C-alpha cells in the first residue's frame, strides 16, 4: 500500500498521482496497452467490413466486448479476493497471444471470420478480467489524497488512446498490411507486463470474504434497486451506450460508402471520437462547479443525439470528423456525470460493486447496440442506422431530463 504525508486536497492537481512511481509505471503501461487495443479494434472493424457485412462487423465487435457484460460484476467481486497484479499480468498475456495468433493467421492465408471470432472471444474474456482488476488496483497505487488525480488520469489515458490508436491503426492498414496492427498490439501488451514487473508495487494480500461471489453480486443488485435514483442512472447509461457509443461500428461503412475515403481517412474519423472524448472531459471539469450532475447528464445525452443525427445527414468528410468528435465528447459528458453521481453517493462497502455495475453498463451494452445498428445498416443504409441511433438517444435524453435525479447531501447509510 502507498503511504504519504497528507496535504490540503485543494492544493492537489491533476498530475499529482504521477509522483508515485508505482502508479506512474502502471499508468504508462495502461496507456500504451489502450493505444494498442484501439489500434487493433480499428483494424478489426475495417478488416471485417472488407470481407463481410455491417451485421458481421457488429457481431465481431460484440464478441470482443460482451464478456464484460456477463462477467464484469462477478470479476469485480473477485478482484477483492484475488491477487490483482497477477490478474492484470495473466489477462495481458492472454490478449498478447491472441493478437499474435490473429496476425499469423492473416499473414499465412488470410483469416476466416470464424477464426477471428474465436480469438477475439478469448481476448474479450481476458479484457473483462483486466479492466476490473485494473480499476480495483488504482486506489492501491496512490494515497487517498491523490485518488481523484489517479482516476482522472486513467480517464485521460483511455480517451487519448481512443484518438491515437485509430490514427496509428489506419496508417498501418494503409502502409504495412492487415496483420501488422495485431503484432503492434501484442507488443503493447508486452510493454505493459514489463512495466508492471519492474514497478515492484506492493499489492494488498487476498483477503477471504464471507459468502460467495454470487451473493455479493445479488447484494449489489438489491442495494441499487432500493436506491431507485441509481437504477434510473444505470438504465440511462445503458441506453446511451447502446445507441450513442455503438455508432463506431458503422464508421467503416460511413467512410467507404458515404464519405468515400480510404484507410487513412477512416482512422482519423474513428480517432476523432476519442479526441472529442477529451473535450468532453474538459467540459466536465468546466461545468461541474456551475451546474448539477442531472443537467450535465441531460445535456450530454441530448447533444449526443444531435451530433448523431447531423452525422447521418453529413456528406462532407471534414464536417463528419467534427460531428464524430462532438458525439464522442457528448457521450463522455453524460457518462462521466453519471459515474460521479454514483461513486459520490454510494456507501463505501458498495463502492466497488456499484462502480463495476457502471462499467458494465457502459462497456457491456454498447456492443449489443453495435450489432443492432449493423443489422439496420444492412437492411437500409448506414445513414439510416445512424439516424435511428440519434433518435433513440434523443429519447434517452428526454427521459434523463424528466426522471433522473441525484440526491444532495452525504452518502446514504
Protein model, in words:
The chain is mainly α. Helices cover 78% and strands 0% of the residues. The protein is built from 16 helices and no strands. The radius of gyration is 20 Å and the shape is globular. It starts with 20 loop residues before the first helix and ends in a 10-residue tail after the last helix.
Listing every helix as H and every strand as E from the N terminus to the C terminus, the arrangement reads HHHHHHHHHHHHHHHH
The amount of helix comes to over 70%
Report the β-strand fraction as a percent range: under 5%
The first-to-last residue Cα distance is 27 Å
The gyration radius over C-alpha positions equals 20 Å
* Uncertain ranges: 1-12, 409-413
Main sheet? none
Mean pLDDT: 87
Number of helices: 16
Instruction: Label the overall shape.
Output: globular
- SS-derived structural category: mainly alpha
Q: How many β-strand runs? A: 0
Task: Based on the model shown, name its key terms.
mainly alpha, 78% helix, disordered C terminus
Q: Can you lay out the helices and strands and say which pair or pack?
A:
Elements: H1 21-51, H2 54-65, H3 67-78, H4 84-109, H5 113-141, H6 147-175, H7 180-199, H8 213-226, H9 228-245, H10 251-258, H11 263-287, H12 293-313, H13 317-344, H14 351-364, H15 366-379, H16 382-403
Amino acid at each position: 500500500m502507498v503511504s504519504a504525508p497528507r496535504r490540503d486536497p485543494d492544493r492537489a492537481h491533476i498530475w499529482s498521482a504521477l509522483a508515485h512511481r508505482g502508479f506512474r509505471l502502471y499508468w504508462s503501461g495502461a496507456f500504451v496497452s489502450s493505444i494498442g487495443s484501439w489500434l487493433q479494434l480499428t483494424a478489426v472493424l475495417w478488416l471485417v467490413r472488407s470481407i463481410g457485412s455491417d451485421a458481421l462487423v457488429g457481431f465481431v465487435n460484440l464478441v470482443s466486448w460482451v464478456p464484460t457484460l456477463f462477467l464484469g460484476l462477478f470479476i469485480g467481486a473477485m478482484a477483492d479476493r484475488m491477487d490483482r497484479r497477477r490478474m492484470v499480468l495473466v489477462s495481458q498475456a492472454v490478449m498478447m497471444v491472441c493478437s499474435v495468433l490473429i496476425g499469423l493467421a492473416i499473414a499465412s492465408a488470410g483469416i476466416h471470420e470464424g477464426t477471428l471470432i474465436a480469438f477475439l472471444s478469448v481476448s474479450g474474456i481476458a479484457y473483462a478480467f483486466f479492466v476490473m482488476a485494473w480499476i480495483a488496483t488504482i486506489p492501491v497505487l496512490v494515497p487517498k489524497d491523490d485518488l481523484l488525480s489517479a482516476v482522472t488520469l486513467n480517464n485521460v489515458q483511455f480517451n487519448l488512446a481512443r484518438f491515437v490508436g485509430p490514427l496509428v491503426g489506419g496508417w498501418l492498414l494503409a502502409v504495412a498490411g492487415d496483420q501488422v496492427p495485431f503484432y503492434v498490439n501484442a507488443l503493447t501488451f508486452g510493454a505493459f507486463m514489463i512495466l508492471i514487473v519492474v514497478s515492484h508495487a506492493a499489492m494488498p494480500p487476498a483477503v477471504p470474504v464471507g459468502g460467495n461471489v454470487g451473493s455479493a453480486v445479488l447484494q449489489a443488485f438489491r442495494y441499487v434497486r432500493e436506491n431507485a435514483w441509481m437504477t434510473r442512472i444505470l438504465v440511462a447509461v445503458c441506453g446511451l451506450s447502446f445507441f450513442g457509443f455503438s455508432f463506431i461500428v458503422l464508421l467503416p461503412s460511413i467512410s467507404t460508402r458515404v464519405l468515400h475515403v480510404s484507410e487513412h481517412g477512416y482512422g482519423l474519423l474513428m480517432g476523432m471520437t476519442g479526441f472529442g472524448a477529451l473535450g468532453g472531459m474538459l467540459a466536465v471539469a468546466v461545468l461541474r462547479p456551475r451546474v448539477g450532475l442531472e443537467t450535465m447528464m441531460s445535456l450530454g445525452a441530448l447533444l449526443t443525439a444531435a451530433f448523431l443525427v447531423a452525422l447521418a445527414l453529413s456528406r462532407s468528410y471534414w464536417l463528419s470528423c467534427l460531428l464524430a468528435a462532438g458525439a464522442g465528447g457528448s457521450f463522455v459528458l453524460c457518462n462521466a456525470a453519471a459515474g460521479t453521481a454514483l461513486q459520490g453517493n454510494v456507501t463505501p462497502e458498495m463502492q466497488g460493486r456499484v462502480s463495476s455495475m457502471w462499467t458494465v453498463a457502459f462497456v457491456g451494452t454498447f456492443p449489443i447496440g453495435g450489432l443492432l445498428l449493423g443489422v439496420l445498416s444492412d437492411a437500409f443504409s448506414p445513414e439510416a442506422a445512424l439516424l435511428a441511433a440519434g433518435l433513440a438517444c434523443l429519447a434517452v435524453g428526454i427521459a434523463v431530463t424528466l426522471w433522473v435525479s441525484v440526491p444532495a447531501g452525504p452518502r446514504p447509510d
